[in-house]
């Protein structure tokens, strides 16, 4: 009976610490079925709560050992409420030179929190859309990687800077 109480106490403490993320304003994931097709765009609709506060923006990614590249190229597009669009091509390091995957996690699933933009002020009121798509290519090949293996989930996160001080 006593070991069950210890396990229950440990689980409650873990949930409390995980749930107490005072910085997050928006944090959602979408699953990638089997392989991430190069034409598949993952979209997030966002309505920021404050048009005067600055935020840090992140692309979150979960991947498995099936991910066989050392880096990751993404095209991230932000569509503003009044039609303006900002599109960035970003590169992230995903593995050490030895091939060991970067990220957090004790299993073969690693979670990566990748910087997108710092100190962003959402000065237009209304709904923003963030579109994320991979832009991977193999060395020496013109055509991109059609189906990217090993990515299980793609997410987008907005963190308040004011709460982190």
UniProtKB/TrEMBL annotation:
Query: Is Lipoprotein there in the keyword field?
Result: yes
Q: Which InterPro entries match?
A: Motility-assoc_lipoprot_GldH (IPR020018)
Instruction: Name the UniProt key words of this record, in alphabetical order.
Output: Lipoprotein
Under Pfam families, the record lists: GldH_lipo (PF14109)
Protein name per its UniProtKB record: Gliding motility lipoprotein GldH
Task: Give the organism the record lists.
Answer: Algibacter mikhailovii
Give the lineage: Bacteria, Pseudomonadati, Bacteroidota, Flavobacteriia, Flavobacteriales
